[in-house]
Every structure is written in structure tokens, then in C-alpha cells.
Specification:
The protein is mainly beta. The protein has a single domain (2-208), classed as Porin. Helices cover 7% and strands 63% of the residues. The chain contains 1 helix and 15 strands. It has one helix spanning 2-15, and strands at 24-34, 38-40, 51-53, 56-66, 71-77, 81-89, 91-104, 107-113, 122-139, 144-146, 149-162, 167-176, 179-184, 190-195, 199-208. The strands form 2 sheets. The protein has an 8-stranded antiparallel barrel. Strands 2-14-13-10 form a 4-stranded antiparallel sheet, with no helix packed on it. Residues 5-14 have low confidence and may be disordered.
Amino acid sequence: MRTRLIAAAALACAAAAPAYAGDFMVRARVLQLDPANDTTGPLAGAPYNGVAVNSKYIWEIDASYFVTPNVALELIATTPQKQTVSLNMGDSAHPTKLGTLRHLPPTLTVQYHFAPTNPTVRPYIGAGVNFTHFSSVNLGNGAYDVDRNSWGTAVQFGADFPITQNLYFNVDFKKIDIRTDVTATADGSHLGTVKIDPVLFGVGIGYRF
């Protein structure tokens, strides 16, 4: 019995290994991307009812550097994601497909980790900046274009759950401000501003070293 208690205590201590300034953590996540799809301007008025970007699952990786045991800088990255863009014609339940585009949304956040030595759960919050670049734009067979770059804010909260001394299960929630202007290719006239502003919920695995 004593041996079992000692082994259990050792395992708990290993899982609760202290966090140090200078540590790195890398994570891989699968995310559900759910755009807000709020449109302003001509494309939001009759006979239209706004532009919509589809929801989808994506993957991301991130790298964090711990400035202190509680404060970390996190850089989030993925590959350019292909999205379907549709135009709502009065009835948002039956949108008309405009085409597709790709977007690359690297995001940098500053995180505060509330309990960096807790053996069971280590919650955090974060805030930062997002840069999104749009590419491979094919809308209305070339009739429409979008502003290729977007800057916005990002907020997040989540938690790491220690599995071993270095391995973690991660749950993460983010809200990112992403918007772009839609223009007519022929004359450059402004047709509307689309606020994509996605909510992202993800789960993944992290490794700290």
C-alpha cells in the first residue's frame, strides 16, 4: 500500500511540474470556424440580404513562449484556408454561390495563465492582433473582388489539462475580427463590407519544453 501511495504521489508531482520563464509550448488543434457574416453597404439592402462565408473545420498549430510562468506570447498559424462565398437573395436559407477564396490568418496574442502549476487544469485568457490575407479570389466569375488584407483584434480563453509532465490536452475558444470590402472588378465601385468575424472553438494536444 505504501509503495502505491508513493507512486501515486510521484505521478501527481510529475504532472504538476512547475512552469518556468523561458519555457516553450507547441500545440496542434482542430477548430470549428463559424463566421458571423455581418454585411453593410449595398449588398445588405434589397434585393440582397448580405454575403455569407461558410462554416468549416480547419487545423492550426501554435507556438508559445513563456515570458514569465504566467505570461506567454502565442503565435497561431495555419495554411491558406479555402472558403465558399455566397450571396443571400432575400432568403438566407437559399443563398446563391458567388465563388471561392482563400484566407491566411496568422494571429499573435498575449496570454495570462492563471494556475501554471495546477496538476489538473491550467486556464488562460489572451488578447492580440490578427492579420488576414485573402488570395485565389474567384467571385462571380471575376465580376467581384475583395480587399486582400485585413487587420483586427483577437480575444481568446482556454485551458490546458496536464496528461504527463510535458504533454497537455487543450481546449481553446477565440473570437477574431476579420473584415473585407467587396468591389466591382469593372469599375472598382464599393459594393459592401463583409464582417466575417469568426468564432473558433478548438481542441488539441500541446507539448511544453
